[in-house]
Amino acid sequence: MHEWALAEAVIATASEIANKEKLKKVTEINIKVGELQQIEKEILQFALSQLKPANFTNTKFYITKAKTTLQCRNCGKTWLFEKKKLEETTAEAIHFVPEVAHSYIKCPKCGSPDFEITKGRGIWLENIKGTK
Amino acid sequence: MVDPRTTIINQRLKKIRRIIAVSSGKGGVGKSLVATTLALTLAHKGYKTGLFDIDFTSPSTHVILGAENTKPIEEKGLVPPTINGLEYMSLIYFTRDQAAPLRGEDTSNALIELLSVTRWSELDFLVIDMPPGIGDAVLDLIRFVKSIEFIIITTSSQLAFETVKKLAILLRELKIPVIGIIENMKMNPSDNIKKETEKLDIPFLGAIPYDSSVEEAIGNVQKLLDTAIAQKIKEITSNNGL
Questions:
Q1: How far is A102 from chain B (nearest CA, A)?
Q2: Contacting B residues, span 113-142, partner chain A, CB-CB under 8 Å
Q3: Cα–chain-centroid distance for residue B75?
Q4: Distance, first Cα to last Cα, chain B
Q5: Residue A53 is part of which domain span?
Q6: Model confidence pLDDT, tens digit, residues B166-182
Q7: How large is the ipTM?
Q8: Among B7, B76, B95, whose Cβ lies nearest the Cβ of A100?
Q9: Which residues of chain A have a CB within 8 Å of the CB of B74?
Q10: Three-state SS at A27
Q11: Which range of residues forms the domain containing residue B107?
Q12: How many domains does chain B have?
């Protein structure tokens, strides 16, 4: 449950922002997860619900998935990441550390491993809302 | 938009008493062998020790340790396996036998990921095998690991020391503790590196003699700990409060 470790990071960061913004209650947290990391939304949602501190009691967590766009630095080709094209062990390795995609995925046009993950890498905290 | 991973890093490392990066301005000076032998030596002294290989594009500590058939356990993150008494983590568990052609931003992201999800236990020491140079890894560790200390490795060559000097000066300017400089693969009696190190006002931790027989100890920890290199590293740790 790699998602658990990421949920801890989300809660720690949201708490830090809530303290900085002097929010007494956090009502909403918007999270974006890139498809490359293949985070299980349900597991992440469950982990967040288990880890939330007192001032997050009624917090709603909204998790949105984002498509992963890759762009070849060698020939400029842009394409979308597709998990179904990978072997299970490879998909699992990319789940743990998305950058190892460079070890397994090549540009479909020129075969180069030198591509940029332009969108949808991993987990991002979009914003948090609350009351002062 | 905020990357939540960076907030959790110091919490992941808070149970580790000392975090030592084994670094050099130059490649090929024996960092990985010194880092691995240092970690094994500390573990054999009875300290709870971890070894973290962040030379992502050219990892080799797994070969030195003979870490085949091990892998991290997925348990609310990644729990590093224990190999020859060391908790161990490397990107090799995920790249396997493939090359890792990573640019700077990817290197940073992979390091942040592993720092934020690896669940080290309560350790006395975490030894970090660094990639060569003063690049992303050095800057990221300084940025994210509040209690980082460095041991810098050079050879007897002026070419190696020239870059080591720059790394040492940079760390001093940034007020990052440098435990000292080790002269590795020493083949001549000259004390030039010792004198040059002292001019920098940095402790000279000692010189490790060149030992061609160490190649036979790669992958065999017991043999490695019997080498002259390991004996010297043991002496260096005892003389420097490690």
A1: 6
A2: 113-114, 116-117, 119
A3: 25
A4: 42
A5: 2-131
A6: 999 999 999 999 999 99
A7: 0.94
A8: B95
A9: 1-2
A10: strand
A11: 5-239
A12: 1
Closest residue in A to B56 (Cα) is A100
Instruction: Copy the structure tokens of residue A40.
Output: 């299980």
pLDDT digits (tens, 9 = 90+) for A12-64: 999 999 999 999 999 999 999 999 999 999 999 999 999 999 889 899 999 99
Return d(Cα A13, Cα B181) in angstroms, integer: 37
- Cα separation, A88 vs A84, whole angstroms: 9
Which chain B residues are Cβ-neighbours of A13 within 8 angstroms?
A: 2, 4, 7-8
Residue A98: the pLDDT is 96
pLDDT of residue A1: 60
CATH of residue A15: 3.30.2320.80
Distance of residue A23 Cα from the nearest chain B Cα, in angstroms: 17
* Strand pairing class (B204-209; B178-186): parallel
Q: How many CB pairs under 8 A join A and B?
A: 105
Q: Which residues of B touch A5 (CB under 8 A)?
A: 8, 76-78, 116-117, 119
Give the nearest chain A residue to B101 (CA atoms): A102
Nearest CA in chain B to A98: B110
The pLDDT tens digits of the residues spanning B69-107 come to 999 999 999 999 999 999 999 999 999 989 999 999 999
- Measured CA to CA, the distance from residue A59 to residue B11 in angstroms comes to 23
pLDDT at site B25? 87
Contact assignment for B75 to A1 by CB distance below 8 Å: yes
Instruction: Measure the CA–CA gap between B80 and B85, rounded to whole angstroms.
Output: 12
Tokens representing residue B100 in the block: 């890792």
- The CATH number of the domain holding residue B190 is 3.40.50.300
